[in-house]
Amino acid sequence: MKDVTRKTWIVVADGGHARILLNKHHDEGVSELQLVNKHDPRLAHHHSELAAGVHHTPSFKPSPEKRGEDKFLNTLAETLQTGVSKKECDQVVLVAPAVAMGVLRKALNKDTHKHIVAEVVHDYTHQDNATVWKHVKDKLPL
Question: Does residue 60 sit within a domain?
Answer without folding.
Answer: yes
